[in-house]
Design a protein that fits this description.
heterodimer, A: alpha+beta, D-Maltodextrin-Binding Protein, domain 2, Dipeptide-binding Protein, domain 3, B: two-stranded antiparallel ribbon
């Protein structure tokens, strides 16, 4: 009884506060960039995925422990090899006031299938079959283990809101990257926040959606003002001076400064983006020799790089999959051993070494240029002379596509949060037709690896599948298919009363709907 | 005067043409715009399709002619990122940059003239020596360092001034929102303007001092002293007027250069102006926006130089803008 009264009181105080415009809890935050569009299907990028859970809710979402949490889908069950049946939550409305039903999910699914950025992820899917207003089947072409992984990308959009012509006579659901579309500037999702104003590159303002379905959410932020601040020192200064309450990302150089300040909190999580170097076997006959590749991996002290260059802001890696992924194999450890490296070079007949070219970006990954320099000097110790060239990412990617150097840097984050994705893009035999090995500049090719990945993509038994993926990591490790460096950490910082720790995650899209700001 | 303006207009057209051709021809070296438009895992096939849609696979001259044809009608292309006409995007950001440059110019004029004149009149005073010493330091410190140090001192440590952005702005007309008419906007202007001014101020102090000292040595000033004119009249009327002639010329060019320095200042302060816009456009390989920016900045240079030439004519009647027939 007492509890009811208190909560009633709290509720009316809250309502009063909002009505008076005072006491409304406002979060001022700064990311390094603002979302490119309000259309969640326009571009598969970090900015979009940070915006999407604020404005649109997904069917299911990831938890901090990398398990699945029901959102708009209340429950699901696998009916047969190819079908998973979902039950939708009832009573959910869009920002426009329209109720959400299976028809909206179907509409969203079809639009995803036509989006250049997302259609690849949805390639294994055959169709979405609506059963009734609140249940539907996702049917895959073959048995497919990643149905839920993929469902995290389904953010149902308001099909009625996005149907029909806009004021210019264009269809409202038009999906074009380089022209202003209705969907890129208007939104109606089911998420916790409604976009109230937006000036690209300057500011986005959000208000809490009064009809938000998730009443159980403890989130108490009524208004969010998001400003992009590109320069890291300015972003940190804005937090320390109190101009904003929450920032991300936090550069490694400022960690100590922020951790030492008693007004702000730093939250860091081990990341899932692997940074690697690839050794091009087509350009260099030397790299075809396993001993040379092994020597290179043994010559590179990636734990030293993590400590000295990354200031501990990374986890040294020996494989692609970070901990928590199905393919992660505990026994694979970094293997820096300079004497062994020298011995291997001698055994391979390259005691005198050789010269190679290396390229890396200088504004894509944290400290990318410094890492490349460090690796060059480590390779010099086994007499491999490196001619290093670094360039901005805008120029780097076309160069990477040309495979323009013998050793090239690449970082990868699996869009599916799944181990197979790394290998599909980075280590499978390059194949123009299937798109496999699109970023495998090393031209490493092992039919056994390809076979295991193909098997794993239709294996629905999670344990068996993990076994296959771990075997892949072991083979890549033994073959020294690439040079693993580290997984970049992620870091956020906020004022003490802003409780960010429970809402951040390794995907780097904080669930701000659940954010609590303490008094 | 009219003939002069017409000739300038003609020259401007040539300048614009050359800039557009140059900026258009470098765009292939800036990187691949598609990379910034799509996610990393999108297939090469998809990318080629989009490239075809954007007309990026056409030969250079086809692309340039298409661009030039539209440009003549005032359409400089559509920004990939903002998805709006590039010219409109830049014009929206122009007021923020002009306010920054105006504020910095104001600081420079208000400080450099009195300081420069004083240190020319009293070259051996302690103050003059200190100014000369400081000005060397000022010239040598890059503007982004000044800016970051200013932020740490005044925003983080002292908490007096805001660290980024424009703050509250008021709508004037068109795309012009100003920060000049309210306290919050002015406070936000202060640090960026001072940082931007810091690079030019020492230059102008030294320039005015040097010019003034030279003028003070000239015959007509000596004559004025001999005539027994009041020192203030000699310094501020006779000497200063001739001192300012070269200063105005240099000043005009430097204001143009200052627009270039705004790139750094705006980036550090997250100032939503066109300098920051340009840097972002380069990072994102937003080629239509880059080309449009270069053309607009070219136009600003031409306009400021034309105005400077006209003012020069007013200050010094012996300078004729057009060659007279006589």
């Amino acid at each position: 009884m007492m509890k009811t009264i208190t909560s009633l009181l709290a509720g009316s105080v809250l309502a009063l506060g909002i009505a008076m415009g005072a006491n409304a809890v406002t979060l001022k935050m700064a990311y390094d960039a603002d979302p490119v569009s309000l259309d969640p299907h326009e571009q598969l990028s970090g900015g979009t995925l940070q915006m999407a859970p604020m404005v649109f809710d997904p069917l299911v979402r990831w938890t901090q422990e990398l398990t699945f949490e029901p959102r708009l889908a209340e429950s699901w069950e696998r009916i047969d090899e190819r079908t998973v049946r979902f039950q939708l939550r009832k009573g959910v409305t869009f920002h426009s006031g329209n109720p959400m039903t299976s028809a909206d999910v179907l509409w969203t699914y079809n639009r995803l299938k036509s989006s250049p950025d997302f259609k690849g992820i949805f390639e294994p899917f055959d169709s979405l079959k609506v059963i009734d207003d609140y249940s539907f089947d996702l049917v895959t072409k073959e048995a497919f283990p990643l149905v839920l992984h993929t469902a995290t990308y389904i953010f149902p959009m308001d099909s009625k809101f996005y149907t029909g012509p806009d004021e210019n006579g264009e269809p409202k659901d038009k999906l074009v990257k380089h022209a202003g579309t209705y969907a890129s500037t208007h939104e109606s999702g089911t998420g916790p926040y409604v976009v109230t104003s937006r000036e690209q590159g300057v500011k986005v303002e959000f208000d809490r959606f009064s009809g938000y379905w998730d009443k159980a959410s403890k989130g108490n932020v009524d208004k969010i003002v998001m400003t992009p601040i590109k320069e890291a020192p300015t972003r940190v200064a804005a937090l320390l001076s109190g101009d904003v309450d929450f920032i991300a990302p936090v550069p490694p150089t400022d960690h100590q400064r922020i951790a030492g300040n008693d007004k702000v909190n730093l939250v860091a999580l081990p990341g899932t983006r692997i940074i690697t170097f690839q050794l091009n076997q087509e350009r260099r006959a030397e790299f075809k020799d396993l001993r040379v590749r092994q020597a290179i991996v043994h010559a590179i002290n990636n734990e030293g790089i993590v400590e000295k260059i990354m200031k501990g802001f990374a986890t040294a890696a020996a494989q692609q999959s970070p901990k928590g992924y199905a393919g992660y194999k505990e026994s694979l450890k970094p293997r820096y051993d300079l004497n062994k490296a020298k011995a291997l070079m001698k055994e391979a007949g390259y005691e005198k070494g050789f010269s190679v070219t290396m390229m890396a970006p200088n504004n894509r990954y944290v400290n990318d240029e410094k890492i490349a320099q460090a690796v060059s000097s480590m390779l010099a110790k086994i007499n491999i002379k490196v001619d290093l060239k670094t360039m901005p990412k805008a120029q780097y990617w076309p160069t990477f596509d040309e495979r323009a150097a013998d050793i090239m840097m690449i970082g990868w984050h699996a869009d599916t949060e799944d181990s197979a994705n790394f290998t599909e893009f980075l280590a499978m035999c390059p194949n123009k037709e299937t798109g496999a090995g699109q970023y495998n500049s090393g031209n490493y090719c092992n039919p056994k690896v390809d076979e295991l990945i193909k098997l794993s993509s239709s294996e629905t038994d999670a344990q068996k599948r993990a076994g296959m993926l771990q075997e892949v990591e072991q083979i890549l490790y033994d073959d020294a298919a690439f040079v693993p460096l580290h997984w970049q950490n992620l870091a956020w910082a906020a004022k003490k009363q802003v409780d960010i720790a429970p809402v951040v995650n390794v995907m780097n899209f904080p669930f701000l709907g659940d954010l609590v700001i303490k008094e | 005067m009219i003939a002069f303006l017409i000739r300038r207009l003609f020259q401007a057209a040539i300048v614009m043409f050359v800039i557009s051709l140059l900026s258009f021809s470098i765009q292939d070296n800036l990187g691949d715009p598609l990379r910034e438009l799509v996610g990393q895992s999108v297939s090469e096939e998809q990318r080629q399709e989009l490239r075809d849609q954007l007309g990026l696979n056409d030969p250079f001259f086809t692309q340039y002619l298409r661009f030039a044809g539209k440009a003549l009608q005032g359409d400089l292309g559509t920004s990939y990122f903002f998805k709006e006409p590039a010219l409109q995007v830049i014009l929206k950001k122009l007021p923020a940059t002009l306010e920054l440059v105006f504020g910095a110019t104001l600081i420079i004029i208000l400080l450099s003239v009195p300081i420069g004149v004083y240190s020319a009149i009293k070259p051996h005073s302690l103050f003059s020596k200190a100014v000369m010493g400081l000005s060397i330091v000022g010239i040598s410190i890059p503007v982004f360092l000044t800016a970051i140090m200013a932020i740490y001192l005044f925003s983080v440590e002292l908490n007096w001034l805001p660290s980024f952005g424009r703050g509250v702005t008021e709508h004037v007309f068109g795309y012009w929102d100003t920060g000049f008419f309210n306290m919050d906007g002015l406070l936000h202007l202060l640090l960026p303007c001072v940082s931007l001014a810091s690079i030019m101020l020492p230059l102008f102090v030294r320039l005015i001092r040097a010019e003034m000292m030279e003028v003070l040595e000239s015959e007509y000033i000596k004559f004025a002293w001999a005539k027994g004119l009041a020192p203030t009249r000699i310094w501020f009327l006779h000497a200063l007027k001739n001192t300012m002639l070269p200063v105005i010329t240099v000043g005009g060019v430097q204001i143009g250069t200052m627009v270039a320095y705004t790139i750094l200042t705006e980036t550090v302060f997250q100032w939503p102006g066109m300098g920051f816009l340009f840097l972002e456009a380069v990072n994102r390989v937003d080629t239509p926006l880059i080309v449009a920016y270069l053309i607009v900045v070219g136009a600003i240079f031409v306009v400021t130089n034309t105005i400077v030439d006209m003012i020069y004519g007013l200050v010094n009647p012996t300078v004729r803008l057009t060659r007279s027939k006589a």
